[in-house]
Inverse folding.
């Protein structure tokens, strides 16, 4: 992804549903390569749905920490269920949200 590229996530009742305008990333090699600073309209570049929720799974590559805010903060992660929230860390890997 680069520049203002955006995969607009669904909203409303479909906001956290896999397959509703998200980016599906298969393990272990599925990741989004970022080129330069992302400038998505609305601030969110994409909603990522990994096939496995593991802290060792890298979902972003290359210019992860470029920009203000840093590129990795411009992605959201589809929660696997109602009680677990995940996000992306500064290494581009999944992590459980606090």
């Amino acid at each position: 992804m680069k520049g203002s590229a955006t995969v607009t996530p669904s909203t409303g009742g479909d906001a956290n549903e896999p397959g509703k305008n998200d980016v599906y990333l298969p393990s272990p090699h599925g990741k989004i390569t970022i080129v330069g600073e992302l400038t998505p309209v609305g601030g969110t570049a994409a909603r990522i749905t990994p096939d496995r929720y593991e802290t060792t799974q890298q979902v972003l590559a290359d210019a992860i920490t470029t920009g203000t805010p840093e590129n990795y903060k411009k992605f959201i992660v589809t929660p696997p269920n109602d009680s677990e929230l995940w996000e992306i860390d500064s290494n581009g890997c999944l992590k459980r949200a606090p």
